[in-house]
TrEMBL record:
The lineage of its organism: Bacteria, Pseudomonadati, Bacteroidota, Flavobacteriia, Flavobacteriales. GO terms for biological process: CAAX-box protein maturation. Residues 110-204 form the CAAX prenyl protease 2/Lysostaphin resistance protein A-like domain. The chain crosses the membrane at residues 7-26, 41-62, 82-99, 111-130, 137-158, 164-185, 192-209, 221-239. Pfam families: Rce1-like. This is CAAX prenyl protease 2/Lysostaphin resistance protein A-like domain-containing protein. GO terms for molecular function: endopeptidase activity. Coiled coil: none annotated. Keywords: Membrane, Transmembrane, Transmembrane helix.
Length: 263
């Protein structure tokens, strides 16, 4: 059995186990823990942690000698991730402060779920495992690695609307958002904390201010979000040039990685 065949067989099987475990047992685990702790927020975080077990086992089978924190990209600087994400999302924060009114009443458990918990676990599942593992440990290039994970990431956000046009907008925005988060994650030394905090701040500002009922947004909501994305891209390019680091993503490795790229 070739190494590539073994790798992809275990990877695909691991993802299938995770997918069906999450599909059939997540809600049951969530309900059980919620009854136990009387907290939807704690239940959400713990249920996500439990359904991550197939992913963690898959990574350890594939890379038994590697540290799980390294495999999950959690061994990087969280302070750097927090700082860069906060600075990068300032256009969103400032724009929303001046353009939108804050919501009248917060449900802090819902806020925790939609910001901290969702941002952290979605980045681990989609950016680190489903996309990052393929890019870091195979010859697959950027587009080859992100396609399935980003399509799935977009699909899981379609619950936000029943309107056909809005569904198309939500799918397109979340798909492109996945591509953007992945690019930042790859270019900044596979520091998943940057993607986690970008995800967190963007969700937080959307939740705290009366921007829109779903991610499709509106003119000003998306304008300020796009301004933040431009700023983050500028920051990433500046840091890469300052440290004289090679860019991970180039025209030469969109589908198959160049030997010059370090992963």
């Amino acid at each position: 059995m070739s190494k590539n065949f073994r790798f992809f067989s275990i990877f695909i099987l691991g993802f299938i186990l995770y997918y069906f475990f999450d599909l059939y047992y997540f809600k049951s685990i969530l309900s059980f823990i919620k009854e136990l702790f009387h907290s939807k927020a704690i239940a959400h975080a713990l249920a996500y942690s439990i359904t991550l077990v197939p992913i963690i086992l898959t990574l350890k089978i594939l890379f038994p000698k590697k540290n799980i924190l390294d495999l999950l990209s959690l061994n990087q600087s969280s302070i750097k991730g927090l700082t860069l994400a906060f600075i990068g999302t300032l256009p969103m924060l400032i724009g929303y402060i001046f353009h939108f009114k804050p919501v009248n009443k917060f449900n802090f458990e819902t806020l925790f779920i939609n910001t901290i918990s969702s941002a952290f676990f979605e980045e681990l599942i989609f950016r680190v495992f489903l996309i990052g593992t393929l890019y870091r440990f195979t010859r697959l290039g950027f587009l080859s690695s992100i396609l399935f994970g980003s399509l799935l990431f977009a699909q899981v956000h379609l619950y936000q609307s029943q309107n056909i046009i809005e569904l198309f907008e939500i799918f397109a925005i979340t798909f492109l958002g996945s591509v953007f988060f992945t690019w930042v994650y790859f270019e900044l030394d596979f520091n998943i904390w940057i993607a986690v905090f970008l995800h967190f701040f963007m969700n937080l500002y959307w939740e705290v201010f009366n921007v829109s009922e779903n991610v499709s947004g509106n003119l000003y909501g998306n304008l300020y979000k796009f301004s933040s994305i431009i700023l983050i891209i500028i920051i990433v390019i500046y840091l890469k040039k300052k440290t004289k680091s090679l860019f991970q993503i180039t025209w030469r490795n969109l589908f198959i990685k160049s030997s010059e790229v370090q992963s």
